[in-house]
Write a structure and sequence with these properties.
The complex is a heterodimer of chains A (248) and B (265). Chain A has 248 residues and is an alpha/beta fold. Chain A is 33% helix and 25% strand. In chain A, a hairpin with a 1-residue loop joins strand 8 and strand 9 (199-204). Chain A is globular and about 50 Å long. By secondary structure, chain B is mostly helical. Chain B has helices spanning 7-29, 33-53, 57-76, 84-104, 112-117, 125-144, 146-154, 156-161, 166-188, 193-205, 211-236, 240-264. Chain B is globular, with a radius of gyration of 18 Å. Classes of the chains: A alpha/beta (248), B mainly alpha (265).
């Protein structure tokens, strides 16, 4: 079967103030595929996503997108200025070429109908994430890009969301590219994992990646065995992430 | 016979306030307040050049602020973080250079105070016609492009990914802002132009639940301020431009103080 390629990246290189953020990255995203990018904090996950979306300029390499590719993007963070009064409904209504019918559909599908008339400034972290997800779905995307979609969401909500992701793929027939910092949470929901640390350390099915030496080295054995370690636990031993203090 | 001399300036003020409502709301939402100031200060340089080259001053004003807007467009991207210093330098140096050059231009007397603080009563019928024409055009554009303009204000990145022409929309907004600054100069003056843009939307924020409401209420607040300011100006012989700004500020203070009461009901 010859898969339709939505995005192809060739030999990406990106530096910031003489520091190499991404290098030697080539990948392709096919129709209907769910790909998860994992990696330690600050190792270029969000930057890679932004490069693929055309939000960030490259130093070399290029990104090929299928012509007229419709992309739905759920950013890691979007804070709105309180100076603008805005309800959830009006926020969603700002999406390009959107129909009220579709807004109602996705609000219902994501169980957030009750939020429609609320001000966006009063939502909780989890509610806001769902609204952002709804907004990305309104594009009727060929490719759905989710940057850390569960940030600020409780465990129950995280499980719900990861259950939802394959369903969304089937409903929309789209590809999904998401960023996560935890392989174990996304294992069931993803077809392919890309383990990133400036470059692609390893990639493949979740099962394959979870036993790959490069993955184990990057995340440390203990973290791998205890997927929900707390932040304080990390402080008991040396950080073995080699990505320095870069933040994106 | 009832005197009618006040009709022209009143019309000019009301028309400007009407357009300043939505445009000023964008200035507030996009945190461009300082940017508007810079445009206004730079406009004095436009006037200076107009005086020196002997072209129509209103035209020189418009050319000056549009030119500055185009130069500053790439800057606006960074204005939130570090470029405020740079904007400050541009803003005050253009004002200073304008003032110095004007004083050096021998034999030419320009009503400097008129430009700095506005001279509403010097507004002529042709000015009103210009304001009406440009104002109607800008209002039409804002209404026609309302959703795209709002989308790039909420998030330029999401708007870009959804396929909005982000750069073109930003340019459009900036050009309208420059034109607005140039038009308001005669009424409120260089030093107070951005007050006319910012204070009414800030006052309107307390009362509004949607962006559209905020823009409309801002227009209303601005227009009421124009009427109150002019009345005060006639009654106590105060300068019209500053009186309008004082009126707008009073409305802002009252509405903001009442805000908790209003929102509760």
């Amino acid at each position: 079967m010859n898969a339709i390629k939505l995005i192809q990246a060739h030999d990406l290189l990106l530096k910031r103030q003489h520091k190499t953020v991404l290098h030697d990255i080539s990948l392709s995203i096919n129709k209907g595929q769910i790909i998860t990018v994992i990696g330690p904090n600050g190792c270029g996950k969000s930057t890679l996503i932004r490069v693929l979306l055309g939000l960030e300029a490259l130093d070399s390499g290029y990104v090929e997108r299928k012509p007229n590719l419709r992309v739905g993007y759920m950013p890691q963070k979007l804070s709105l200025d309180e100076r603008m009064p805005l309800s959830v409904w009006s926020f969603l209504k700002l999406s390009r070429n959107v129909r009220s019918k579709d807004i109602r559909h996705w609000l219902k599908r994501l169980n957030i109908e009750s939020l429609a008339q609320l001000s966006v400034h009063t939502l909780s972290g989890g509610e806001w994430q769902r609204v952002l997800l709804a907004k990305s779905l309104l594009m009727n995307p060929d490719l759905l890009v989710l940057d850390e979609p569960v940030q600020g969401v409780d465990i129950q909500g995280q499980l719900e969301l990861y259950n939802l992701i394959p369903q969304l793929r089937d409903e929309l027939g789209c590809a999904i590219l998401m960023v996560s910092h935890d392989l174990h949470l996304v294992m069931a929901a993803t077809d392919e994992v890309i383990c990133l640390n400036g470059h692609i350390c390893c990639s493949g099915t979740p099962d394959k990646v979870s036993i790959d030496p490069a993955y184990l080295k990057l995340f440390g054995k203990e973290t791998v065995e205890a997927p929900l370690v707390t932040y304080t636990h990390h402080h008991d031993h040396e950080h073995d992430h080699q990505c320095g203090g870069h933040h994106d | 016979m009832i005197s009618t001399w006040w009709i022209t300036p009143l019309m000019a003020g009301l028309l400007l306030a009407l357009v300043a409502g939505p445009l000023g709301s964008f200035v507030v939402w996009r945190r461009m307040a300082f940017f508007g100031d810079t445009l206004a200060h730079g406009a004095l340089l436009g006037i200076t050049l107009g005086v020196l080259t002997d072209i129509n001053l209103s035209l020189a004003l418009i050319i000056g602020s549009v030119f500055l807007a185009l130069v500053l467009l790439p800057l606006e991207k960074y204005a939130r973080v570090s470029a405020d210093t740079l904007l400050g330098i541009v803003s005050h140096s253009t004002l200073a250079i304008g003032l110095v050059t004007l004083s050096l231009a021998h034999g030419i007397r320009v009503d400097l105070m008129g430009y700095l603080f506005g001279d509403l009563l010097a507004v002529e019928l042709t000015d009103v016609l210009w304001i009406a024409l440009a104002g109607a055009t800008m209002l039409a554009i804002v209404i026609w492009q309302w959703r795209p303009l709002l989308a790039i204000t909420v998030s330029e990145e999401l708007a870009f990914i959804e396929g909005y022409p982000v750069q073109r929309l930003k340019l459009l907004l900036l050009l309208m802002l420059a034109l607005m600054v140039a038009l308001s100069m005669k009424v409120v003056g260089i030093l107070l132009v951005s007050a006319l843009l910012i204070i009414p939307p800030a006052a309107a924020r307390a009362l509004s639940y949607t962006p559209k409401q905020m823009a409309l209420i801002a227009s209303l607040v601005g227009m009421v301020s124009v009427v109150l300011g002019m009345l005060a100006s006639f009654r106590w012989d105060t300068p019209a431009g500053p009186s309008i700004v004082v009126a707008a500020t009073s409305i802002f203070v009252v509405l903001t103080a009442l805000n908790p009461l209003i929102k509760r009901t």
